[in-house]
Amino acid sequence: MTTPRTAAPATSAAPAPPRWAVRAAHLAAVTALPAGLWRLGLVLGWHGGYTDAGYHAVGFTGWDAVWPLTLSVLTEALALLTLGLVRPWGTVSPRWIPLLGGRPVDPHRVVLAASLGAAALTVLWTPFLAWWAMPHPNMTPLGHLLVGFLYLPAVAWGPLLAAVTVSYHRRHRATGA
């Protein structure tokens, strides 16, 4: 009796990522976490540095809570995609993904998407470095300071993603992919 043969899983010919790229990818994956946790706290009723009037003016209850929850989940999901640049699923899509499972990922498309993402994140978050220079009348002085430090890691997300993207590109260029 013979058993049916299954195709061998696709493997990557790309060399392993350097240690610094793996660390940078993990760091990039958590840059959105502090701000996301802060937003979740706001939805749960914590004022998070807002004055009472400021908190109620923004409105984090009922349907108004959907946006901060959605933003927190999507932001962290996008940040976690950075790990694909240093993991096997950034070269061969996981088998559980319908229609794409087990197929090689086009490194050119990955580099393009990650590069555009890094540029957009850098443009989006770099102005946040001026947070402390801007007045925030709906926040307490301590809250203003706290929120600044909670969002500050997001400033590093774009440059970290760019560095990991360059590493991914170099590794896949070396294989001729």
Commentary on this structure:
Keywords: Membrane, Transmembrane, Transmembrane helix. This is DUF3995 domain-containing protein. The two termini are 40 Å apart. The protein has one domain. The longest helix has 34 residues. The chain has 177 residues and is mainly alpha-helical. 55% of the residues lie in helices and 0% in strands. It is elongated and about 60 Å long. Helix 1 runs antiparallel to helix 6, helix 2 packs antiparallel against helix 4 and helix 5 packs antiparallel against helix 6. The N terminus is likely disordered.
Defining traits:
mainly alpha; 177 residues; disordered N terminus; elongated; single chain; 6 helices
- Anisotropy-based shape: elongated
In N-to-C order, the SSE pattern is HHHHHH
What is the number of domains?
1
Total beta strand runs: 0
| Continuous helix count | 6
- Contiguous low-pLDDT stretches (5 residues minimum) are 1-11
Structural class: mainly alpha
What does this entry show, briefly?
With 177 residues, the protein is mainly α.
Write the layout of secondary structure elements.
Elements (H helix, E strand, L loop, with lengths): L18 H12 L2 H11 L8 H7 L7 H15 L26 H19 L15 H34 L3
Helix pairs in contact: 1-4, 1-6, 2-4, 5-6
